[in-house]
Amino acid sequence: MADAATLKERIVRGDRVIGVSASLTATKSELEDILGRDSYDFLSSDAQHSPYNEERLVEFCGIANELGMPVQFRIKHTRHTYLTGNIADLGPLGLEVPLVEEEAEADEAIKWFYYPQFGRRSMGGSYRYGVGDMGRLEYADWWNDHGILCLQLESLKAVTNAKQLAKPGVTCFTWGPSDLTFDIEAHPHHPLKSVDDCVRHVIKQLEGTDVKVNFRNYDPALRDHYAEMGVTVFMERPR
Questions:
Q1: What CATH number does the domain containing 94 carry?
Q2: Number of domains observed in the structure of the chain
């Protein structure tokens, strides 16, 4: 299992990092079973396409913390980006914002995910990841160094805007292969013809930045295929 305090550092330096998906309704024994199937670094859970309430997210993150696993949580919608700080107060270490295309959306995510003086997130909440007995400034600095913010690229517009979206404060670009495929099908004359073309294009744009690609490969057998392109973070279903 990963040392959660260094997870962001490992991502930024390009280590291979593996996340595994789990339902918010999973019990502790179910999570133990999932985590026992491979060597994982974080749990990935979802509100975009699944039912969700705040109390259950707090409970899920608490169980994950007992098991030594940080949580990456995908929020409902891009328009909820202003809630990134509020949702982070409930226990995830990482947040994923879906359907990002515009610089303004990236700016809003960064603004509310991070504390001053980098962002504008409000201070408070006893369920925050890693808060312990740290004081206000100590925790703000800790979070700004360790919190993981992911923007999901799900359209050709997002892919071609990747360089502009790769702002300080963005840790990873995640992928929605299905929705991106819809957009590729809607633009048959676009020079990027496949999800793999888009991955290669984005990785090329990210040269010289600290932003990494976090790909939903789902199947562990596909790790090496995407690693050869330069993907370093993977999100998979349990084996």
A1: 3.20.20.60
A2: 1
Residues of the chain with pLDDT under 50: 1-5
| Confidence (pLDDT) at 1 | 39
What predicted TM-score, i.e. pTM, was given to this entire model? 0.95
Query: 87 lies in which domain range?
Result: 4-236
d(CA 139, CA 87): 17
Q: Which two tokens stand for residue 206?
A: 């990210």
Cα gap 48→174, rounded to integer Å: 14
The dihedral sign for the CA sequence 174, 178, 179, 185: positive
Burial class (CB in 10 A: 0-12, 13-18, 19+), 202: buried
- Distance linking the first and last C-alpha atoms of the chain: 16
Q: Pick the closest to residue 102 from 113, 112, 110 (CA basis).
A: 110
Q: Residue 121's closest CA among 143, 92, 145, 93? A: 143
Residue 26 CB partners (closer than 8 Å, separation 6+): 34, 60, 63
